[in-house]
Amino acid sequence: MDSLTSSEAEASPALVEEYQQWRAVGPGGAPFDWNGFMLCKKAEITQARDDTTNLALYDSPEQYAKGWKEATEAQRRAAQTCFLKQPLPERPGPRSRAKHFVFPQRERNDGEPQDAQVQAAYQTAFEQLGEVNSRVEWKTSVLEKHGRALFLQDPVTPLISSSKGEICHVHRSDLSGHVTLSFADAREVIGKGWGERHRLSGTETLHLGYTMLYVPRNVAEVEVYAQIYQAGIEYMTSGHQE
């Protein structure tokens, strides 16, 4: 791997090409320039995990879950409880995967065509989550630094402190999204092919249940993703606040 460099002019052609690929994904939480790209590369070297579909991490929360030692027994139980109303179906077709960048984590590049019907259905379903749930509010995402996200109104506890109470958001650039799930629900989502962990999930930076949801392929999948977001809301507003 090329060493980190202070400017694009000093970088190797391979690193410059990777920078252009990173730019094509679109803006996220880091500065949308060379400095932001270097932050991404530093995180890749020092913190990021590659095993974003490995379910074994959920068997050892004491090792991988930030805030586990400080959490109460009620908060630990909630983190290991399933909030999905029913088991998810196996997602049909080839498994999607996120691009390799640590952040922003996306499935597709910014500007790639989106199905208008799916986009409209997804936006409606996501907005409805804020209408039917109490103890949540809309604010600008603290993780993405732009775009709307649902937040917990209650005080933040050790297990969810890394997101500052942010529950979920959808990326306008490609319609992938992120949600903080209980470990049991994250296992179900990843195991059935609907998403994968963030590369910083399971480190000191992000909640072990912080999960990327893939781009919905059709309107029927929008309904599944709405159920997953709802499970995240119910986890974040559950008895783990006690």
Automatic annotation (TrEMBL):
<protein>
    <recommendedName>
        <fullName>Luciferase domain-containing protein</fullName>
    </recommendedName>
</protein>
<feature type="domain" description="Luciferase">
    <location>
        <begin position="165"/>
        <end position="231"/>
    </location>
</feature>
<dbReference type="InterPro" id="IPR048273">
    <property type="entry name" value="Luciferase"/>
</dbReference>
<dbReference type="Pfam" id="PF17648">
    <property type="entry name" value="Luciferase"/>
</dbReference>
<dbReference type="InterPro" id="IPR040841">
    <property type="entry name" value="Luciferase_dom"/>
</dbReference>
